[in-house]
Amino acid sequence: MNRNPLTMGRKGLVQHLGTVTVANGYATNAGTNVRTGWFNEVLKTDDVSFPLICLQKGKDLAPKPGPAALLKFSGFYVVGAVDVGLDDYEDALDELEHDLLLALMPTEGQFPRWLPRGIKGITVGAPEQFPPGNGERAASVLIPVHLHTIIERT
Fold first, then answer.
1. 78 within 8 A of 53, measured Cβ to Cβ
2. 110, CA 20 to 30 Å: which among 35, 85, 121, 122?
3. pLDDT, tens digit, 9 for 90 and up, residues 75-107
């Protein structure tokens, strides 16, 4: 089993995004369709369906040194996408954005229970919506996140 906290954090995030379902109190079932990789490449696959959540690697922030440890801020983009046409995408995209923000929302002063040991928190950046067009049929929302990972000497 891989004990690398970077890998475990990424996999924990993917698993948690999979909980975005109506049965878990969300408005969409986007969690049943979570992919990893480059969003534009995922959209090109033959079996793509919507709503879609894609976890794409993003830019890390500079690490902070600590006593016998380093705090690494691993960057990701959580991208949600809907395909409901050019005229009616706003409501569906707002619904998916709301679900993603609820799922990613940190609780002040608490470690996220869904993240594995070694991950001490998450920072959620400002969402940005993109309409369909320019050859893309789907509308999407991009949410930058950073996992706060403790790297220790063993």
1. yes
2. 35
3. 999 999 999 877 789 999 999 999 999 999 987
